Amino acid sequence: MKKYIILFALFSITQLGAQNISTYGLLGNAGNLIQNPGADPLTKFQLSFGGQGTFGINATAGELFSSSDVLGNILAANTDDFSLNGLVGLNLPHVGFKIHDHYFFGGVDIDVDFGLVVDRDLLLFARNGMADANGDLDLDYAGDFSNSGARLSVSSRSYLGYQRSLLDNSLRIGITLNRHNYLAGLDVSTNTLGLNSTSSTGTFNQVSAQYDIDIASTNLFSSTSSIDSLADLKNLKDYNTLGDITSGESQNSLGFGVTYKPLKALELQLSMSGIGGTSLSFNSQLAKNMSGSSTINGFNYTSAPGDTISNELSNAIDQFTDEATGGITTALSNSSYTQTFNITKNTNVAVNYYFAERSYLGVHYTSRSNTYSDYQYTGLNSMVWVGKYLQLKGGYYWSMSEVNTDFVNVAIQFRVTPLLQVYLGTNTISDIATAVSGTRSNGNLTLASDTKGVNFSAGVSFTSFDKRFKLEKEARKLIKAASKATQATSLSPADQQKVDRAAENSSTKK
Predict the structure, then answer these.
(1) How far apart (Å, rounded) are the C-alpha atoms in residues 272 and 370?
(2) For the chain, what percentages of helix, strand and coil (3-state, to nearest 5) are there?
């Protein structure tokens, strides 16, 4: 069961880039609108480019850097095997524009996803060799390294969205139509990988090695590529290897979002994506298998009178080497392999209290499913709009399962010029309670001991905000002018008494 879960997680290709906690709730940010099509865009036109990178492992910083023996620390960690996952997502580009109460937007996302799993037994062998738990040589060693593998995939998502504002802009409803494309990828799956030894009395001991590895790819190599052995892979750079990425597997999904402000200071949000998307299975374009085995016997050499020892010993070693490698081959035979392309399903619910015009304190629930790294989080967020050009956002998210770890989110968005806007954000997958003591990995970097991964995102946009900012500016000018006029025409109490007495005297005279 463990192997099935690990390999399913490793080789299920999933688009994850659409969800970005850093940009969720940033006002006037394209990423906020992508995740919630019903969010207030605040713009009449926007051209945006952005990206994010995520890297995580299944051990914490406290476990990984508890001593200088990193490999030993990994083995001592509370993990079955060592795994790492990464994602690089690009938004290229996003365009949105407003026509009266209608807002239209669209764009293209590119995701590069990679992962690696290393069997715990393989790590033990790399560190201790054929030793038992006490560190003594085990002549009846059995090492099963088959829970290892790697993946690389490239996918894209193109989307078109529409939003309608109703009830004097207090209600916004949006929808997106998404086209998901698997462009190219490579999977390396280990079916069998092991090393065993058998002790014998009176004869030589035997060591046997076995391997059975699948290598599969789609659109990564051109149809003219000749890949019949591992040696061919090193020469791929010498000719065109990329296949026709336009012929990849595709499927559609829907997304929607609703934002409602029953009160000026209260905002309710609900959004979902990946609706109608499924797990799509397909045969890989290229499927190869590499398998073999070898049994290695010990040897001895007895010299005879007149022998040249160096030559005879060299011949014996050559014979032993030929025997040891006799069953080892790097040839690749044709095979079949099924790949799976998953569409992520995201849900976001938020309740925000606005303590200023565009500054809020809120609660955010977010979940992700149909992936190799599902999660559920509840976060406490705050966003402060400072002056005219700066937004500061921060929050702490509690994991609702034992599988995932709490994280801290920080983001900043600012306008460099009236039209040029930049944002930066990060999620540190860690428990804030451990951040004070921390774990120092080197002389310059201190990480919270529960840190299991990091996320960075950044983007730039050419943004023209809608007329609300101009109207608010004009309203402030009118209020200021009216206040000055009132002050200029108002009288002090003493002067007002003089006027009243003059009026009384005037009435008496009449």
Answers:
(1) 13
(2) 20, 50, 30
Amino acid identity, position 132 = D
Cα–Cα nearest to 85, from 62, 63, 118, 107? 118
Element (H, E) at 309: helix 309-324
CA distances from 72 to 58, 122, 126, 166, 190 (A): 15, 13, 10, 61, 24
Q: How far apart are CA 114 and CA 36, in angstroms?
A: 27
Residue 16: band (very low, low, confident or very high) from pLDDT cuts 50, 70, 90: low
Distance between CA atoms of residues 171 and 351, nearest Å? 14
Least confident span in 199-213, 305-319, 466-480 = 305-319
Cα distance between residue 345 and residue 16, in whole Å: 9
Contact criterion met (CB below 8 Å) for 454 and 427: yes
Nearest to 182 by CA among 221, 215, 151, 218: 218
- Domains in the chain, start-ordered, CATH in brackets? 2-466 (2.40.160), 472-510 (no CATH)
Radius of gyration of the chain (CA): 33
The pLDDT, as a whole number, for residue 315 is 72
Buried b (16+ CB within 10 A) or exposed e, 352-367: bebeeeebbebebbbb
How far is C-alpha 447 from the geometric centre of its chain's CA atoms? 19
Contact 444, 417 (CB under 8 A): no
pLDDT band at 222 (very low <50, low <70, confident <90, very high): low
Residues in the chain: 510
**pLDDT higher than 50, residue 9:** no
Residue 8, pLDDT score: 41
Q: What is the pLDDT of residue 172?
A: 98
Q: CA-CA distance, 21 to 13, in Å (whole number)?
A: 21
d(CA 450, CA 455): 15
- Beta 12-15 vs 338-343: how paired, if at all? parallel
CB atoms within 10 A of CB 158: 14
Collapse the DSSP code of 3 into the 3-class scheme (helix H, G, I; strand E, B; otherwise coil) and give the result: helix
Q: Phi and psi for 107 in degrees, rounded to 5?
A: 175, -175
DSSP conformation letters of 203-230: S--EEEEEEEEEEEEESSS-TT---SBH
Q: How far apart, in whole angstroms, are the C-alpha atoms of residue 186 and residue 287?
A: 10
Q: Is the pLDDT of residue 160 over 90?
A: yes
